[in-house]
Each structure stands twice: as structure tokens, then as C-alpha cells.
Amino acid sequence: MSIFADKDTKLLVQGITGRAAREKTPHMMDYGTDVVAGVTPGKGGQKVHGVPVYDTVREAVEEHPEINTSLIYVPHFAARDAVLEALDSGIDKINVTTERIPTRDMWELQEKLDNHEATLVGPTSVGVISPGKSKIGPIGGNRAEEAYTKGNIGIVSKSGGMTTETAQVVQKAGFGISTAMDIGGDKVAGTTFVEALKMFEKDSQTDAVAMFGELGGTYENQVADFLENNPGFDIPIVAFITGKFTEDMPSQQYGHAGAVIRGDRDKPSYKERVLSESGVHVVDVHHEIGEKLKEVV
Questions:
Q1: Domain boundaries, the chain
Q2: Is 256 annotated in the active site?
Q3: How far is CA 136 from CA 32, 160, 182, 217, in A?
Q4: Of these four, 15, 17, 126, 163, which has the most CB atoms within 10 Å of its CB?
Q5: For 94, what's the count of Cα atoms within 13 Å in the CB-facing half-sphere?
Q6: What is the pLDDT of residues 36-85, one digit of tens each?
Q7: Quick check: 185 and 157 in contact, CB under 8 A?
């Protein structure tokens, strides 16, 4: 098994005629992802790398009812409407690569998601990959088969680049990856660490999870609260929290929109402490993730 992306993924790319999507679509296809259709308003009737383009999501779904996942590659001002269009067309898995989506738009989308049985990963996500099955988004680039090998360790990360770096550390320790998911580093995440962990718990292929967190926000702290309240969760979690050097420089943004320290709960040191107290195996440096996995799996 795997989570979110698998051999049954039938992908729609919204914004497929744009430069980034046009560049990344063949990488997904070469990996084996079934890219069924694309959507760009006003560009219906065109083809991108042989993939038919439609004016609306509803048209695409009517012509290709097997579509079950959408990848959003549209500008920030169009992302909200693109997600709503996918939801209204019955697509229940959505991955958003778009950056700089207004926070108010994401709060509105969260309310909509609560009323649909749908999962949104992102925004600012480089994607999701289940090695040997499917890859959604630019994750792993055009050499994803080298960056990600199949195995039994799940990865969930706030950083796109560090998702792949974490996979390398895991693989150097002798493990492979069940699914790697970049949830993005914005203030409001469509899928939180806790929600990703719940998915991995249900996945028979995943024996442990490597988690890459960072300064800012409280999604890491929510993991601690979740584990305290759910002692039956029995998948080992190995975590690294980056950004301790920033604790002497509060109220500055470092990279991601959510990477800002505004209080003690936002600090990496606080996150490390509460995660450790809840049973997470926290490592001090990133490359220790692999060695810790050897101890707990």
C-alpha cells in the first residue's frame, strides 16, 4: 500500500499549459504516473505532451470519469477557485504547489474541505511520491527513481528540498520509502503532520515515519498533543526540527511563510521537548535520522 499517491492515481493537472506544469508533466509521466487530462480556461482542445486540455474541471471529469486526483499549478490569485472547482467536481485528492496563497483563502478552503471527504496537500508542496507506483508534482525531479527507492519508511516534511534529503538519509541507513509527502511550509496547511501520521498509521506498508519540522507554527506541537491523547498509536516516529539558530532572532521570517517565531511554542527547542516527552524519537542533527530508525524499527 501507500498513502495519497499509488498505482491507481488518475491525475488531472490544473494549469497544465503554464511553464512550470508543462515542464514537470513529462517527468511524472516518465515515472509512470497516469496523467489523464489537464485544464486551462480558454485552452480547451490543445494537448500538452499528448495530454488533452479542457476549459473546465467539470469537462475533464465528464470525459475522464476515472480522474481521482488533481495537481494545482496555477498562480496564487487563481488557486482558491481552482481548488473549489476540483472539489465541486468530486475530486477527493488535491495537491497544491502554488506559493503565496492568501491566508484568508486557505482558511476558507479549510472550511470547504471539512464539508467534503477530501484531502488537500499543500500549498507550497513539491508533491507526494510512492516509489514504484506514482509521483505527483515535481518531487524528485526527473530522476525520482534514483532519489526514492521503495520500502517501509514514511516521510512527512514541511520542506520540499529536505523531503528528498531526508529520503537520502533514510536510504543510506538501509531503508526504503513507502510514501514521501511534502505538506508545505505555509501558515495554514491543508494536511497537517497529525493528519499525515493518521494516514501512515492505516498504511500496512509503513513501519515507521521520519518527520522533518521547523521553527514557526504549532503543527509539530499538535503531534505531541495527539500522541498524548492517543497512546494506542504505535508507529515509531523519528523527528528532526530545524532552525534552532533562529531562537535569538525572533519575529523574522526564514524561508517559508510559516517559519516565524512569535512565541515560545514556535521555537524548535520547545517543539523538540514536547515531542520527546510524547514519545517521539527526536534527533539533534538531520543525518542521525537513519541511525535512529535502525534502533526503533
A1: 1-125, 149-297
A2: yes
A3: 10, 13, 11, 26
A4: 163
A5: 35
A6: 999 999 999 999 999 999 999 999 999 999 999 999 999 999 999 999 99
A7: no
Total Cβ atoms within 10 A of residue 202? 9
Task: Answer yes or no: are the C-beta atoms of 46 and 16 closer than 8 Å.
Answer: no
Cell 470547504 -> residue: 112
CB-count exposure of residue 50 (10 Å: 0-12, 13-18, 19+):
exposed
Can you give 138-151 as a three-state secondary structure string? CCCHHHHHHHCCEE
Instruction: Answer whether residue 290 shows pLDDT above 70.
Output: yes
CATH superfamily of 1-125: NAD(P)-binding Rossmann-like Domain (3.40.50.720)
What residues contact 179, with CB distance under 8 A and at least 6 apart?
Answer: 2, 3, 4, 5, 128, 129, 130, 154, 155, 200, 203, 206
74 in Cβ contact with 55 (< 8 Å): no
pTM exceeds 0.90, yes or no: yes
Q: Which grid coordinates are listed for 258?
A: 510559516
Instruction: Tell me the CATH class for 149-297.
Output: alpha beta
- Which uninterrupted H or E stretch holds 36? strand 34-39
Spatial contact of 64 and 37, defined as CB atoms under 8 Å apart? yes
- Closest among 263, 132, 137, 275 to 205, alpha carbons compared: 132
- Position 41: which residue type? P
In the sheet that holds 93-96, the strands lie side by side as 47-48, 51-54, 34-39, 10-14, 69-72, 93-96, 119-121
- Which of 49, 64, 76, 256 is flagged as catalytic? 256
